[in-house]
Fold this sequence. Notes:
The chain is α/β, with parallel strands linked by helices.
Amino acid sequence: MEQLDERPFPPGDYDVVLVGSGPGGLQTAYSLARTGIPRCAVISRDSAPGGMFRRFPLYQRLISWTKPDAPFDRGTREYEWYDHNSLVGDERAHQALAPEFMDRAFDVPARREMEAALVEFAMRGGVRVRYGCEWLSTRRDDAGFVLETSDGEYRCRVCVFAIGVTDPWVAPIPGLEAAPHYVAANAPERYQGKSVFIVGKRNSGFELAQGLLPWARRIVLGSPRPVDTTILAFSPLSIRYLSPYTEHIRGGSGSYVVDAAIERVERHTDGYRIHASGTTWEGELELDSDEVIAATGFRAPVRDLPSLGVAMVNDGRMPAQTPYWESISTPGIYFAGNVMQASPGLRKHGATSSSGSVNGFRYNARVLARHIAEKHFSARGFRGS
Ligand SMILES: Cc1cc2nc3c(=O)[nH]c(=O)nc-3n(C[C@H](O)[C@H](O)[C@H](O)COP(=O)(O)OP(=O)(O)OC[C@H]3O[C@@H](n4cnc5c(N)ncnc54)[C@H](O)[C@@H]3O)c2cc1C
């Protein structure tokens, strides 16, 4: 679904400019529009709503659940616990949209079902976005910030970046750069009969392993830290990706989960050799594998924000934020969506930090919109709803 024909928010002066049309951008745009701040522009380089869910998860199934039927009716506050994927709307017509698109083949939505629900939310909720507009660089001026984009300059007092956390981040392991990252992994059938070493044991590593189970001859997941089974039991990961782990425990299936520090990866004409040393066991590991995939994580595509003073954390992968998701070092720059997970949360008040899943950040995006209205625009009489 292409939405490039409608081009609202031409370059110019605005109160707030929001970048991104994934679930974080859509939820924030929806909520900002209801605070009364009159001049909010929303831009995205995509051609339609959905953000990351237009492409990922690579192997097509979400890890977060939606229960089409639950002990509470759709549209109630209580039902939201049973539906971690729908964005939250103020009116019934904008609520609980994910279950409307599920074919119920699984207990979690498929990627395309999630994308369809986000498109529907944008349409029913009147979320307008200037699609096909890429933010390129940023500078300050007297009134705030200037965002240079592919369509021209946007000036604003406040910017909100809902830009996701999907730029590949490759761990600094010698030779690993020769292997594809998760985002460049092939279709599962291309691994038929092959041995595959996956570097990383978090969501994306287990997602790959799960998708490759019917195809690969041998799958090894390797990284220094062991899988924490007590966390796994309560993690959304267990819903979808536990099979590679249980097959490893059971043994004899060709799936292995190894605690090892990968020291280097050598590329040969017909595959790779992985050199590693045990972390929860003593010894060295030298393993040949037809394929290696780096599932070592992602970073936020912050472009030149550090040059404006935006401090970064987590090996430079995420912007450091206040509990209200403002840059700790550059006031007026906020973050929404998955990037919110780098905020420490309202610890003093007992509130947990943000989650990188839709379920966690959809509520935070609403709070953020109200916070921006009150902190930056309340003198003009605008109040959050
Ligand atoms: C592999 C993987 C699987 C995941 N699975 C799940 C899951 O099952 N359930 C779940 O709840 N969460 C999942 N997540 C977390 C997921 O990232 C978030 O839930 C959600 O997609 C993040 O929404 P977002 O709006 O913050 O970012 P995104 O969906 O990534 O959207 C970012 C938006 O910013 C735009 N953008 C970025 N840079 C620019 C620029 N320079 N100019 C203009 N526009 C720009 C992009 O085009 C896009 O529209 C997963 C994450 C990954 C990496």
